[in-house]
């Protein structure tokens, strides 16, 4: 992710010595990488023409962002990528939950069922965890997948631009989070009535919550960019989101949101069967066609079916 950094003298003086930034100043044909000192000339140096700022914090390298044009070009690539693969169902979820976690199994079966039901492209962050689960579920259903990958996901020790098994033409590695977010939102909008799209929030952490509230705010303010309404499902597996939903109810009491305002933005589902039934009704499709029992959705009264098998290779 590209980060533009601007330091004031007070910021510099308050930094931990291990977090001191090294600024490389390029002016004309002169290149100097000397550490800038906090002197009376600091403001003068700060206002001089500077093409690049490279900052290292505790050994972490941040890519320079030399101009807004770079972000714009990457957003355009995201839009072109979506046009090629087609809009569909966008999944938001944790990168940390592995194949042994019950939510991985449920997410796999959910994506498999929705891909078959809506016959649409399955979109995700093309990362590990529940993003991997929905990718595998859609592939199991024989449906197309697309992803907007970022170099390093939460919980990963190493960064890589390459997905372990998806072909290169089915995902786009983004440098900038802003471009990635544009892509994930645009992949779920409905341009025509024949588009069958949705946003699905699976259990997740800070990144997932960021995306969930961004999408809900865009829907609330009618800035999602969709010509037609788009269903937004919150998968409340094992009451994962119940406390958050309770907090939103408290916000209604405080007057920071209107009564029923947030509840109108999404549909909370406790099971995969509930989610599939809702989408089938929403799009006027046969209810969960192709499934003979609830156990095939990876659930049995809220418990993951032991018969659910996933190829994790």
UniProtKB/TrEMBL annotation:
Top-rank taxon, per record: Eukaryota
Gene3D superfamilies noted in UniProt: 3.40.50.450
Annotated InterPro entries: LOG_fam
Pfam families (UniProt xref): Lysine_decarbox
Protein name (record): Cytokinin riboside 5'-monophosphate phosphoribohydrolase
Protein species of origin: Salvia splendens (Scarlet sage)
């Amino acid at each position: 992710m590209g980060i533009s950094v601007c330091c004031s003298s007070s910021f510099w003086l308050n930094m931990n010595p291990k977090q001191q930034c090294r600024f490389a100043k390029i002016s004309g044909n002169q290149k100097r990488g000397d550490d800038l000192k906090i002197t009376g000339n600091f403001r003068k140096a700060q206002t001089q023409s500077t093409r690049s700022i490279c900052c290292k914090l505790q050994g972490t390298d941040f890519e320079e962002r030399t101009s807004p044009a770079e972000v714009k070009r990457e957003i355009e690539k995201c839009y072109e990528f979506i046009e090629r693969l087609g809009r569909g169902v966008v999944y938001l979820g944790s990168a940390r939950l592995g194949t042994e976690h019950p939510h991985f199994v449920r997410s796999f079966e959910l994506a498999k069922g929705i891909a078959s039901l809506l016959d649409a492209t399955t979109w995700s962050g093309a990362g590990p965890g529940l993003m991997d689960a929905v990718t595998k579920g859609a592939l199991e259903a024989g449906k197309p997948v697309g992803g907007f990958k970022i170099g390093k996901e939460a919980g990963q020790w190493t960064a890589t631009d390459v997905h372990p098994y998806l072909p290169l033409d089915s995902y786009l590695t983004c440098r900038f989070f802003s471009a990635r977010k544009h892509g994930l939102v645009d992949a779920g909008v409905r341009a025509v009535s024949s588009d069958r799209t949705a946003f699905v929030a699976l259990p997740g952490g800070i990144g997932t919550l960021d995306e969930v509230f961004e999408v809900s705010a865009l829907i609330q303010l009618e800035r999602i960019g969709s010509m037609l309404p788009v269903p937004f499902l919150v998968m409340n597996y094992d009451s994962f989101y119940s406390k958050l939903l309770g907090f939103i109810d408290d916000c209604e009491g405080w007057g920071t949101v209107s009564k029923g305002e947030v509840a109108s933005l999404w549909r909370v589902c406790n099971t995969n069967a509930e989610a599939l039934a809702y989408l089938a009704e929403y799009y006027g499709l046969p209810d969960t066609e192709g499934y003979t029992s609830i156990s095939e959705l990876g659930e049995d009264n809220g418990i993951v079916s032991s018969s659910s098998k996933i190829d994790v290779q």
